[in-house]
Amino acid sequence: MPEVVFSVDQARSMRDQAHPGHNRWHPDIPAAATVRPGSEFRVECQEWTDGQIGNNDSANDVRDVDLSPCHMLSGPIAVEGAEPGDLLVVDILDIGPVPQETGPKPGQGWGYTGIFAKQNGGGFLTDYYPDAYKAIWDFHGQQATSRHIPGVRFTGITHPGLFGTAPSPELLARWNRREQALIDTDPGRVPPLALPPLPEGVLAGTLSGDALAKVGREGARTVPPRENGGNHDIKNFTRGARVFYPVNVDGALLSGGDLHFSQGDGEITFCGAIEMGGFIDFHVDLIKGGMEKYGVTTNPIFMPGNVEPRYSEFVSFIGISVDHGSDTNLYNDATVAYRNACLNAIEYLKKFGYSGEQAYLLLGAAPIEGRVSGVVDIPNACCSLYLPTEIFDFDIRPTADGPRRADRGSCAVSS
Ligand code: ZN
């Protein structure tokens, strides 16, 4: 096992660790550890809500979740010699749930997928599913099953949802400016268009007093992906992946967390992945001046991992950029097209006895493939969603006999 440079005791909050984590992006958050280029090391992580979600049959915890301390990140890890303009090379050597532990925290033998309420987080289909729901998943080695979605068992595509480097003060100011401008276009919207800095719930490693208050006023929230990486939720950051992160500050200051046992493309329920705490092993290196050398100046680039489930047969669903409710055409809108592909998949799965909520949870968590298939065939963008048939213990392929409808239980609901 490589040296653990950031440790997490799962029985404690991120606030009470030997070295506390952080939940905002800000260049002032001091490094928790320093590593050399070429080194291998382990980072331990809490689940992203810092353990607010329990292994039970009620979704009230998802409904009432406090998002102000999310995501809880491990780090920052400083890399010796890293300077602005470099590319930080990050290899994902290994990743998994909390090793050899069972317990009440996500990652201790289990994880969860949540549909967040429209009033508190929302999700990709929040206008169709405005209430909170949850599915608990039990881990069996690399496979997952859920008492809330019976009839499915699949190999997880395990990856970190969120890693990135610290922004420079200038980059942070740009984020805050442009995101506030977006919020200002519809400040009362539910769910909000973006999340501005929030002093409430802020954690910034060992900072306290005025320094912590400054991070609370200025620190960027962790929900979106940005130029530093961040919450990409790209399911292909599996074992064997190599990510090239822009370096914006001395030492690069790599942070992350939000480990996912599995996730489908789009992570459509907002926490549609199977969320867990656990560990991730890295190797890091530097490409000096790499941002200019390779033209990687706005966002990271990456080489997908080479360890992932192998499913070869799919039933695929297509969506186009039409509002079918009002029969209105939208112009080349890939978001609407993917949403329609998801809704079409859900309608199909309902014919086998699943509720819409169960199907929505499953599409977020299972290793489904989402594709932007066409964006030039005016006026309709076309997206497609590939659902592996082998994850079901019954045949979901269309046949002349019709769908095998059965009682498929219920996901966890809120009261
Ligand atoms: Zn996540």
Describe this structure in words.
- With 415 residues, the protein is α+β, with helices and mostly antiparallel strands.
- Helices cover 15% and strands 29% of the residues.
- The protein is built from 6 helices and 23 strands.
- The strands form 4 sheets. Strands 2, 4, 6, 7, 8, 9, 10, 11, 12, 14, 15 and 23 form a 12-stranded mixed β-sheet that branches. A 6-stranded mixed β-sheet has the order 1-3-16-5-13-17, with no helix packed on it. The protein has a 3-stranded antiparallel β-sheet with strand order 18-22-21.
- The protein is globular and about 65 Å long.
- The protein starts with a strand and ends with a strand.
- The mean pLDDT is 97.
- The structure holds zinc ion (ZN).
- Zinc ion binds at residues 48, 161, 258, 260, 271, 273, 275.
